[in-house]
Amino acid sequence: MHPxxxxxxxxxxxxxxxxxxxxxxxxxxQAWETWSAGKRPECRFVxxxxxxxxxxxxxxxxxxxxxxxxxxxxVSIYIDPxxxxxxxxxxxxxxxxxxxEAAGIWxxxxxxxxxNEASIYLHQxxxxxxxxxxxxxxxxxxxxxxxxxxxxxxxVVGGG
Length: 160
Hints:
The longest helix has 15 residues, at 88-102. The chain has a domain at 3-110: 3-Layer(aba) Sandwich (Aminopeptidase). The mean pLDDT is 95. The chain is α+β, with helices and mostly antiparallel strands. The chain has 4 helices and 6 strands, in the order ααβββαβαββ. It has helices spanning 6-19, 32-36, 88-102, 117-125; strands spanning 44-48, 54-62, 72-79, 107-112, 129-140, 143-153. The protein has a 6-stranded mixed β-sheet. It is globular and about 40 Å long.
């Protein structure tokens, strides 16, 4: 992923936000720099078609600034609604897992709305386990929402 991909990445992100199934965010930031500041630089991927159009993306965000958690990152994967069901989520997840292990990350986490069954399935398919459910963890548009907490421990990094 490169800064010039931002318009497509932002559009796909906003489409995910609009579903109310993907995130507590209500609006994608306008500026690449604002969005990029909270993401790990070495683990950013896009799925392109043969014409170079971006149809999905995946990134990792640090979970803490504390050095003890340097090998723990949170997963974000978004697919253009017009491209769902084509296997892009799995392709991006595989790239993210491989990239994370190359970067020394030993644990990947995800916090997913329970209604987002497709995302939960994707994560389970790639070795994530459900750790639990956070009840009424935050509000989205004034409505309390739960999240399912998932985790994948690397078998390659950190003595997994």
